[in-house]
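Input sequence (40 aa), recorded before submission:
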Amino acid sequence: MTDKMFAVRHDRIQQIVGSLDEAGLGALDRALIVVLGLAR
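Predicted structure, token format:
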């Protein structure tokens, strides 16, 4: 769980930590919508 999100400049990212398939990206999108309070 995260308390605070922030943008990171592309040049500051040193390595890839992992990856998500389409289903994982969809689940992440839905979770972010709920956490950010954008769901109706």
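Checked by second reader. Helices lie at 22-35.
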